[in-house]
Structures are given as structure tokens and as C-alpha cells.
């Protein structure tokens, strides 16, 4: 049965991680769901260099999130880079711990995936992300979330929530050397549905195949660039393995990464989940004032699934990505610019 988070100073942590049993001690299934280390602690170091190295290696492999708190000193400086999240102050800890407690399996899968993606290229990272996402789709955390969502948002079989529309889900317009791709489901706030994915993949495949297209501009109609995955489609594919096969064959993130140096994404309003995971691949992201960003997937028992565990760490780093995805915090435009998540805040309002 899972226990509470374990709080240790650095020498205590080194001692606890010397044996293979640490992997059971720091797992939400058989021990603690999270390890917290006081990086500012000045307890004299009595452990050897080899013990410290063993502990640092173990930190990169533990089956639970690891969190450091405080300004690193002494041994804390050696440990900090190996942790999943580093917080400046103890007051910031409750939000992270609450998020992990709400979805410990998804939280553990997220940090393991982010650790692994440090050594993978984009294609390998997308495959790994899809496999983890598919695994979690079969798990109890996502199953519980989906049951609650469907109970709160029942679809009317006579008047479906998403009626058939004659307009393409993604407008593809070419003018000379410029290709403009526009997400075109404004009534749904451009939720990342199968039809938007397919339309975007079609447009990006054209961009990849034609290097004479020197500029690709991606934007969205309506009040939001993209409000994240279309929740009404969640769980509708026949099984998670089929879902992985579809993502492997038709990945907007993979295509976008292949032409990223020519892509500018103009974002506005809500950029949730896929609404920032995909733009993060592009060479340039320009946001309108008032744009906001969020990664809510862990609270749903999942991990980012549109390429975010590959694209976002390349912009803002692994530890910041882990904090953001674990907490699901809403990030404003200035913070996104300061982090490097976006490249520019537009000076003129969007037409």
C-alpha cells in the first residue's frame, strides 16, 4: 500500500539509495509515491564519492517522482541536476504533492518518460511518448477520469455535440512560397480532434515534401488557437494498441519537426495540451497578449500525447516541464516568453 512522501536531507537520501530495494521503497505501489530532498540542508557529508555516484544514478531510475526543495548547497548541488523537479521554496511543494497524489501512476510515467527522452531523438521520443500514453489509456486513473467526464458530459445521440461541417477542419492555402495552415473548428475552440489531426498532417506532409515552401504559418480561427484534445473522442478508439498504431502512422508532431525551421505558429487565447505541444516544435512561436498555456493531462491519468514530452523540454528544460505537467498550472504569456516556451509577444492585436 502506498505511503506518504518521504522527506530526506542529502546524506540520508544517499544512504537510502545504496541498495536495489530502493526501487520498491520509492514506488507508489509498494512504498513512497514521491521522494523529497532538502537541497539547502547543510548536514555534514559522511558518504563516499562512490556512494554519491550510486545515489545519483539511482535518482535517474527510481519509479517515482523526485523533488528537490531550496537553494542547493554542498551535496545538494551534486544531487539537484538528477532530480525531476527543483523548487525554490517549501511553500511551492504542496501543489506538486497534491498533483502526484491525485494521479501517482501518470506522475511516475511522466517523469520516467522525460528522463528517458533526454537521450532520444525526436522520432524515438514520439514513439516512447505514444507507448506510455497508450499504456496509461488502459490504466485505472484514466478509466476513472473518463467515467467521471462521461457522467458529467453525456452525449445526446439524437443531437450530437459535434455536427458534421462542410468546411475543412484545417484550411490549407498556398500563396507562392508561403503555406498557411489554419485550424478551422472555432465552435469547438479548435479542439484537437481526429479530423484536425488528419487535416494538419495533410498540410504538413505537403510542407515536408516541398522545400520550395520557404514559410509555413500555422494559426487558428476563433477565440482560441487550440483548447487541447477533443474530450468527446477520448476513449473512442477500439483499444490503446490501435491508438498507438494510428499515432505512429499519422503524427502531426513528427511532420512538424521535419519542417520546423520554416514554421511560424501564431497562437492566441487558450493553448492547452496539443495547443502548445505542437507549436513548441516550430522554430518560432508568436503569441497574442492574453494567451495562456496549460498541460492538464496528468490530472486525467495521462501524459502529454501530442509530442509535448519531446518538444517542450527542448524549449524549457526537463525539470521545468516536469513541474508544469505535474501541476497543470496555467502559464501566462510573459512567463511563457521568459521561459522560452514562446519566442515573441505580438505588439499588434490579432485581426
Write a structural description.
The structure is a single chain. With 351 residues, the protein is an alpha/beta fold. Strands 5-6-7-8-10-13 form a six-stranded mixed β-sheet, with helices on one face. Strands 1-2-3-4 form a four-stranded parallel β-sheet. A three-stranded mixed β-sheet has the order 9-11-12. The radius of gyration is 21 Å and the shape is globular. The model has no long low-confidence stretch (mean pLDDT 92). α6 runs antiparallel to α14 (318-327). The chain folds into two domains: 6-102, no CATH class; 122-153 and 166-345, Alpha-Beta Complex (2-enoyl-CoA Hydratase, Chain A, domain 1). It has helices at 10-16, 22-25, 49-59, 75-79, 93-102, 104-117, 122-137, 140-152, 194-209, 240-249, 252-258, 274-277, 308-316, 318-327, 333-339; strands at 6-8, 35-38, 66-69, 85-87, 170-175, 178-183, 215-220, 263-267, 270-272, 284-287, 292-294, 331-332, 344-345. The longest helix has 16 residues, at 122-137.
Helix proportion range: 40-55%
Globular, elongated, flat, extended or rod-shaped: what is the shape? globular
- The tally of beta strands, per DSSP, is 13
CATH homologous group name of the largest domain:
2-enoyl-CoA Hydratase, Chain A, domain 1
CATH class of the largest domain, please? Alpha Beta
| Major beta sheet summary | 6 strands, mixed
Strand content: 5-15%
* Rg, Cα atoms, Å: 21 Å
The CATH topology name of the largest domain reads 2-enoyl-CoA Hydratase, Chain A, domain 1
Number of domains: 2
Q: Average pLDDT value?
A: 92
> From the helix content, strand content and strand pairing, which structural class follows?
alpha/beta
Overall CATH architecture of the largest domain: Alpha-Beta Complex
Order of helices and strands: EHHEHEHEHHHHEEHEHHEEHEEHHEHE
Amino acid at each position: 500500500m502506498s505511503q506518504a512522501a518521504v522527506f530526506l536531507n542529502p546524506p540520508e537520501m544517499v544512504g537510502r539509495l545504496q541498495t536495489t530495494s530502493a526501487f520498491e521503497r520509492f514506488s507508489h505501489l509498494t512504498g513512497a509515491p514521491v521522494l523529497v530532498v532538502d537541497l539547502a540542508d547543510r548536514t555534514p557529508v559522511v558518504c563516499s564519492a562512490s556512494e554519491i555516484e550510486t545515489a545519483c544514478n539511482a535518482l535517474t531510475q527510481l519509479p517515482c517522482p523526485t523533488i528537490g526543495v531550496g537553494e542547493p548547497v554542498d551535496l545538494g548541488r551534486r544531487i539537484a541536476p538528477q532530480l525531476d523537479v527543483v523548487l525554490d521554496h517549501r511553500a511551492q511543494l504542496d501543489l506538486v504533492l497534491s498533483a502526484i497524489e491525485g494521479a501517482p501512476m501518470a506522475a511516475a510515467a511522466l517523469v520516467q518518460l522525460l528522463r528517458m527522452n533526454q537521450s532520444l531523438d525526436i522520432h524515438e521520443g514520439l514513439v516512447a511518448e505514444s507507448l506510455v500514453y497508450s499504456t496509461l489509456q488502459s490504466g485505472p486513473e484514466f478509466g476513472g477520469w473518463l467515467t467521471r467526464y462521461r457522467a458529467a458530459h453525456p452525449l445526446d445521440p439524437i443531437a450530437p455535440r459535434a455536427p458534421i461541417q462542410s468546411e475543412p477542419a484545417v484550411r490549407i492555402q498556398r500563396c507562392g512560397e508561403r503555406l498557411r495552415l489554419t485550424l478551422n473548428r472555432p465552435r469547438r475552440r479548435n479542439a484537437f480532434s481526429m479530423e484536425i489531426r488528419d487535416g494538419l498532417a495533410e498540410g504538413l506532409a505537403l510542407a515536408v515534401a516541398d522545400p520550395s515552401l520557404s514559410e509555413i504559418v500555422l494559426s487558428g480561427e476563433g477565440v482560441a488557437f487550440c483548447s487541447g484534445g477533443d474530450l468527446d473522442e477520448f476513449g473512442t478508439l477500439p483499444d490503446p494498441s490501435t491508438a498507438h498504431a494510428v499515432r505512429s502512422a499519422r503524427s502531426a508532431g513528427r511532420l512538424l519537426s521535419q519542417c520546423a525551421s520554416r514554421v511560424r505558429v501564431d497562437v492566441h487565447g487558450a493553448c492547452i495540451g496539443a495547443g502548445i505541444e505542437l507549436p513548441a516544435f516550430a522554430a518560432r512561436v508568436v503569441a497574442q497578449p492574453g494567451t495562456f498555456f496549460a498541460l492538464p493531462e496528468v490530472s486525467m491519468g495521462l501524459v502529454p500525447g501530442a509530442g509535448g514530452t519531446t518538444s517542450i523540454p527542448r524549449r524549457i528544460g526537463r525539470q521545468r516541464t516536469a513541474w508544469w505537467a505535474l501541476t497543470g498550472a496555467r502559464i501566462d504569456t510573459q512567463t511563457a516568453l521568459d521561459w522560452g516556451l514562446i519566442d515573441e509577444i505580438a505588439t499588434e492585436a490579432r485581426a
